[in-house]
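BACKBONE GEOMETRY TOKENS:
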Amino acid sequence: MVKKMVSMLLVTASLATLAACNSKEPEGSSEIVVESTTTSATVSDEAVPASSESSDESSAPSTQPVDGLYDPSIDFAVNPLTGIQDMDKANEGKRSVGIVVSNVQAAIPQRGVSTPDVIYEYITEGGVTRLLCVYSDIKDMPEIGSLRSGRIVSADLANGNNSIYIHFGREPRAVKYFSQNKITHIDGNYLCTGKMSSSDYDGYIKLPKGTYFWRDRTWASKRAIEHTAVTDGVHVKEAIEAKKIKFEGNAPFLYKFVPDNSKDIAAGEECTYVKAVLSSYMTNCVFEYNPEDGLYYHSQYGKKQIDETNGKQVAVKNVFILFARTGPANTDNRTNVYLSEGGEGYYLSNGKKIHVKWTKKASNEQIKIYNDAGEEVEVNRGKSYVAIGSKGNYSKIKWEK
């Protein structure tokens, strides 16, 4: 179905005096690691640069879809992240945007999580997971949050698709890593104003000059301050333009998409329910198949994952459950996810599953999915959820037909 393009109505609203937001990463680690947040009118001398330019020519591979995805009679382009021909043609040749969202229980419910083209769930300190929500077209990003800090693993996931990487704070190692790997990023922690509420405005929040992120006033009355940062696509676009980051660039196809008739899935085993253990903290990552719409619905912490903004449960066409070696970093007690080593996992679609192997040889290379014969897997068109768990939990996965 072709998506309707939603326009943003810009209005002027008077604002109270607002303080800037600033966060500092903890030095140690615990079962649940959070950044301590302070309010300050200035940024410290050691603050992370708000953006880091990548080279104009990305080396990210461009996966070409097979025939059958493009219909010349439809006045839309094929979305490279979903394989569906519902993207504004004006967005062709533009980079996607990936933004980090907290997934700890204290930050539930979340906003905007039902809308990304692809969601990556990955492990951080103490087994806590976070989400990288990726949009092919920035206009499709609604208010989203709560936002959290960057990690090397999420930066690599964004970089592999040549996405502009948006985070709110960062781990200490990231400063050097972003520069070495030419990762284009924006740290919203240093471009944030005080408490706001989208319900106070008609479609657009007018922020003080030079700020593009804010703390949600409603959330701030109910949860710790580190779980309140939000933004939306309009403001992220403004931040990208203010930092003179180029949208134009390589926009590779995420997978080897086919028109909903993957030969790999057709030969798979029946699977309408899966429960995966990703870490010691995320022990119930669940997907349930609905044959009426052909989507897998996601639950976690024993509850449906619901988008607070629209009341919708997170649902996708494709589910990838991948396992990687993880372990503590030698430098600062952070967690490493060794994506470059690849691993095993499963691909689910249309109520079936297959065993797969996957690779990601470098920061700027995509995750590639292969069947047991060593051939790149055919993937059905639609949104995807990629859950990356610790290798030691591979055998703990549970299935139902």
In short: The helical segments are 152-160, 174-180, 217-220, 233-242, 263-266. The chain is about 10% helix and 30% strand. Residues 1-20, 22-62 have pLDDT under 50 and may be disordered. The longest strand covers residues 352-359.
